[in-house]
Amino acid sequence: MRSKLILIALASTLAACNTPDVDRPDTGVAAVNVPIVTSADYVFDAAAPDGALAPGEAERLNGWFQGLGLGYGDAIYVDGATADAARGQVAAIAGQYGMAVSAG
User: Fold this and answer.
1) What is the distance of C-alpha 75 from the center of its chain?
2) Which of 2, 48, 87, 89 could form a disulfide with 78 if both were Cys (CB 3.0 to 4.6 A apart)?
3) Inside any domain, residue 11
4) Angle, CA 55 vertex, CA 49 and CA 57 arms, to 5°
């Protein structure tokens, strides 16, 4: 009889020590690891008289690309009525980052 009481007391003590697993997220049907996709549009207004970049604009654009951390998944567009020469200059700078330029 005494051994049964000791066994019940020990089992009760161990049952009270059961703590929930705090590291487990909610285990419902919702996915736990969902990728977050974000999008942001930035505009760089460069002086391009006669369709070509003005002196100093290429260095300014290169610094802006460095500041953005331009890389995979980014898109570059050049817009303007006479932007063919500027598009070529921007493409040369963007090529240093492995990027292509599209018409905007």
Assistant:
1) 14
2) 87
3) no
4) 85
Q: Does some domain include residue 67?
A: yes
- pLDDT digit string, tens, across residues 30-87: 777 888 888 899 999 998 888 889 999 999 999 999 999 988 888 999 888 778 888 9
Scanning the structure block, which residue is given the tokens 């006479």?
82
87 within domain boundaries? yes
Contact between 94 and 62 under an 8 Å Cβ cutoff? The reply is no
Q: Which domain holds residue 89?
A: 40-104
Tokens of 1: 């009889």
DSSP alpha helix (H) spans, 19-80:
57-68
Q: What is the CA radius of gyration of the chain?
A: 31
72 token code pair: 């995979």
Q: How far lies 3's CA from each of 8, 13, 81, in Å?
A: 9, 15, 95
Per-residue burial over 75-91, b if 16 or more Cβ lie within 10 Å, else e, is ebebeeeebeebbebbe
